[in-house]
Amino acid sequence: MFHRGVLLPDSWARTLWDLLLFFATLSLAILGPLELVYSLKENFFFWYSGLFLTVFFLIDLVLHFNTAYFDRGEIVTDRAAIRRHYLKTWFIIDLLSIVPFELLSVSLPVHLFGLHFDLAPALRLLRLVRLLHLKELVNRWRHADFFNPSVIRLGILLLWILMVAHWAACGWIVLGNIRPDYSAPENYLRAFYWVITTFATIGYGDITPLNVPQIAYTIVIEIIGVGMFGYMIGNIASLLANLDIARSKYQEKINRLNLFLEYRDIPIALRQKLRHYYRYMWESRRGYDENLILKDLPSALQKELAMHIHADVIEKVPIFKGASDAFIKEIVMKLTPAMFTPGDFIFREGEIGHNMYFISRGSVEVLSERTNQVYATIGEGGYFGEIALLLAQPRNASVRAVEYCDLYTLDKDSFQVVLGEFPQFAAQVKKMARERMHRPKPRRRKRS
After folding, report:
1. Distances (CA, A) of 395 to 22, 139, 355, 445
2. Whether pLDDT at 192 is above 90
3. Whether pLDDT at 445 is above 50
4. How far apart are CA 405 and CA 383, in angstroms?
5. pLDDT-derived band of residue 146, with 50, 70 and 90 as boundaries?
6. Domain that residue 377 falls in
7. What pLDDT does 386 receive?
8. Cyclic nucleotide-binding domain spans which residues (predicted)?
9. Domain of residue 310, CATH code
């Protein structure tokens, strides 16, 4: 959460504060125009905006001087650099947002089109510059693990549309198109209804402009509404299409598979096996290719990620006990993913072994094909075939997948390459190999 005394921008504490800041800014965007329209000076709304939000935004200003930031992907924790960065970016905007204009008792009268305005309350709207922060917050949340970027984008789009409609409704009330026999909430609801029907180009005509300022305002709202309506429809269509890109790609792959099966007249049984395989790949991996992800990472991150995934399994193998962390890192980088469907033989009895296997998901059974006797069943987190790394001898049993199995393989050549970089451990492995050669064969027992 903290690093060198400063708050990390992607820590849970900063994320929680940003979420509170988002709702505080949103409340300002809603209450600010309402205060201007209804002159809410002596009630809860006035003190909420004038006192509470001022203190809240002041705390955020102080926090910004103590929050690290990212520069070209690297986190900057130096306080002097943080201070310079904040002063050049958000400081002026945040300073404006903490000025309590609600508490100022000045008057700026304005006369326009026969209407009389006091411009001083409009100074409160200067605090709405705080909304510029929303883009930064949304961009930060798009990279968070707990938010779907497409859902965030869709939600923010709808939020902006409703916010602009709220401001437009307040403007309609300011221009005087209200019913004196209606209460303030009823007049606001009528104004909001008029804005929505105008934005949506429906325009029932039950609420119409009554003077020149209202006609001019209606023209502006209609122009904004046409643009917003088209922009909204285009974005919503795009967002819904990309809401689950992985599923779209999977469906496209299935369509190509079906065309291929029809073109090649593949037998029904084999078709079902192929479709089951693709369904399993989708349900277990969501269609991603692990190798492609790893290839995009620098070598240091590749090793760190591979260690997180495989280290526990590797350390269980007897021939790797006592190995250094550096050796284990090199070994996990040599692992290759492999997938087997139910009933597939991973290797058969009598074959010369060149690979050992680690089970990431699924289970296999060790058996004799001659007698059909099952010697052992090995499940998730297990391993088998390790003797192939030590001795060039035939397999003494067959191994068959019981269900869909995600395995990782380590071949003998890669193992020897890594041993060449660690001569001390290589001597230990050679000693183990000699012991294995002269050890009598143990009775097979069930493993689980």
Report:
1. 63, 55, 11, 17
2. yes
3. no
4. 12
5. low
6. 299-438
7. 84
8. 319-420
9. 2.60.120.10
DSSP letters, 187-247, are HHHHHHHHHHHHHTT---SSS---SHHHHHHHHHHHHHHHHHHHHHHHHHHHHHHTTTHHH
Average pLDDT over residues 338-360: 92
With a cut of 60, say whether residue 86 has pLDDT above it: yes
Question: How far is Cα 265 from Cα 276, in angstroms, rounded to an integer?
Answer: 18
CA distance 289 to 428: 36
pLDDT for 115: 59
For residues 200-204, give the mean pLDDT.
Answer: 74
Distances from the Cα of 167 to the Cα of 82, 94, 176, angstroms = 35, 22, 15
Q: Indicate the residue among 98, 120, 143 that finishes a domain.
A: 143
Q: Return the SS3 of 401.
A: strand
Assess contact for 193 and 179: CB atoms under 8 A: no
3-state helix, strand, coil in the chain (%, to 5): 60, 15, 25
Mean pLDDT (whole number) for 76-91 = 91
Q: How many whole angstroms from its chain centre is CA 354?
A: 40
Mean pLDDT value across residues 297-303 = 84
Q: Please indicate, yes or no, whether residues 35 and 100 belong to a single structural domain of this protein.
A: yes
Q: Whole-angstrom Cα distance, residue 99 to residue 103? A: 9
Q: Domain holding 254: CATH number?
A: 1.10.287.630
SS3 of residue 411 by DSSP: strand
pLDDT in the model for residue 113 = 58
Determine which helix (DSSP H) or strand (DSSP E) holds 400, and give its type and residue range.
Answer: strand 398-401
Q: How many domains does the chain have?
A: 3
